[in-house]
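Hey, quick one: can you model this chain's 3D structure?
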Amino acid sequence: MVSLRRLKPFVAGILGVFIAGLGHLFLGRWRRAIAWMALVIVVGELFFSPETLAFLEATAAGGFPFVAEQPPSSPVVLEELLLVSFVIVASAVDAVLVGIRTLRAEDAAAANEGEPAEEETWTCPNCRKDVETDMEFCPWCAEPVDPEARG
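Sure thing. Here's the predicted structure for all 151 residues.
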């Protein structure tokens, strides 16, 4: 079975594709997350033309899923959307790299202390799945667990 801790960088990357900075929030890197979110906003404010904003408003007005009824009428709109998409993908890649670097640092610190690098887990009494010890609730069933019951 794959350790839950080993999946964190990849979950962070997937989250970062949907919203820039969300993967960093998942990893607990608050300042870095805010920086990526601010970068997307700044890029949008600096580079989006009124035509691109009108295209986005028309797409969002169609409801979920956000699919445009017509392609962008100008290549400039496509270029501006690709620029923001590039920033979002860069945020996701950065979240994966930060997560991997954090795992390696934790493994190295555990090796220096002579402790095993594997995490300790407890079993949720409600759904019987493994959960990391630092969690206060089960991420699978959202059941809060008393610290004394984590044996």
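One thing worth noting: Residues 16 and 92 are 4 Å apart (CA to CA).
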